[in-house]
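Below is how a single chain appears once it has passed through the pipeline. First comes the sequence as given, then the structure the pipeline wrote out for it. We keep one example in the README because the format questions we get most often are answered faster by looking than by reading.
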Amino acid sequence: MSIHTGSAALADEPASIYQFSAMMKGEEVSLEKYRGQVLVVVNVASE
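Resulting structure:
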């Protein structure tokens, strides 16, 4: 799964997590879909 900013301009900071989307099973899904639910965000990036 990868996270992408939604329609926010690159210079602007997203105001909430719901402005992001994620690639899940090859399909881009807005995190807005999960509003009102508990989200666990894990950073698994490594060098």
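Strands lie at 2-5, 20-24, 27-30.

See the next section for the split statistics.
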